[in-house]
Amino acid sequence: MSTRSIDIGASSSARTNDARLSTAIAIARLIGIMGIVYVHAWTGRTAEELAAVAFSWQAVLRTLLGEVFGRSAVPLLGMISGWLVVSTATRQPYGAFLRGKARTILLPMVLWNAIALVLVGAAATFGDLKAPTPSSIGWTLNELVPMVHADDINVQMPFLRDLFVCMMIAPLLVRASSAWLAVVALIAVVWSVSGVHVPLLLRPQILLFFTAGIAARRSGVAERVAGWPVALCALPFAVLIAPRLWTALLGNAFFDAHPHLMAAFDIVFRLASAVLFWRLAWGLAGSDVADRLRGIERYGFLAFCDHLVLLWLFGPVIGLATGALGAGLYPVYLLVQPLLVLGVTVVLGRVLMALSPTVARVLSGGRLGRSASITA
């Protein structure tokens, strides 16, 4: 075989691997975002009522779904953003880079928070919806841009807020030595475990996972984990899921009694979850459903932004037919909530693209209204 033939074969193999890696990233994002829906799933119960029935089988099912699928979301999404940002942060001038991230992260966050504030607030003020309503100017401003604490309506948005803060220092992180990256990661771990509230980051774990994504890009960790057996990737998760589920069922009282221990355990469990679901995403990227999942993923960011608005507004309506947590049909409703959110989001995205591609592009963080691509 000639050297030229070997070079062509190697080049083709590299392109195939890159394509699968890109598809796996898209699928991992979709898994993470759909898992978040389980964490925020409509129950029809107050926090006090949920605590009273915490060990009922339906409450255990809800907790299990949230812990299994939801806990991987923040590390997966944070690490993917860190992995992807290496390319753009080293290629673009800082001003252009930051403007791009403001357009694809910060602007959609503010707009979706405003939409949530208007729609959910109106439904609570003028209807029967039990949801937060504006109580002060400070509360309203924090709902638009969560500066001091997480939103009360769109509770997932601090991820985008903290991700943008990470993006502000990304050009420094991607150029830093591995030793300095390790220092930043250690600071994020100590900060997370200490429980000290410094509004620079509402969830310091996001900086840890973002930094880990940059380090993973340098060292080829994603590709190496993709080659591990699924059983090996599942082992740490399988060992940790039982204590994680038990402590989650015990509720906030247990977490409040052991804050530092639980914060440290949470980091380890989230990382174990991320490893498992990355490996599953890699497997799906080589399956017959890969193209279909990748096509759906372009609606993922929109689903991340709109799912709580949909759950607030339509969860109780569907709940009239299924009943709240504890009713006979509720488990079916619980299981399909991510699919319902995704289905409505796809319809919404297509309507927006038909009416105004510009609006679709802005509200989807640039994912819709243009050819599908993977961005940080």
Can you characterise this structure?
There is one protein chain. The protein has 376 residues and is an all-alpha fold. Helices cover 77% and strands 0% of the residues. It is built from 17 helices and no strands. The protein has helices at residues 3-39, 47-52, 57-70, 73-91, 94-126, 137-144, 158-175, 178-194, 205-219, 221-226, 230-250, 252-257, 259-285, 290-297, 300-322, 330-355, 357-363. The longest helix has 37 residues, at 3-39. The mean pLDDT is 92.
Low-confidence stretches: none
The largest sheet, given as strand count, sense and whether it forms a barrel, is:
none
Q: Strand-residue fraction? A: under 5%
Mean pLDDT: 92
Report, as a whole number of angstroms, the end-to-end distance: 40 Å
Q: Share of helix among residues? A: over 70%
How large is the count of helical segments? 17
- Please trace the helix and strand order, writing H or E for each element: HHHHHHHHHHHHHHHHH
Shape: globular
> Based on the structure, what is the oligomeric state of the protein chains?
single chain
Which class of secondary structure composition applies to the elements? Answer: mainly alpha
Question: Could you tell me the number of beta strands?
Answer: 0
Radius of gyration: 21 Å
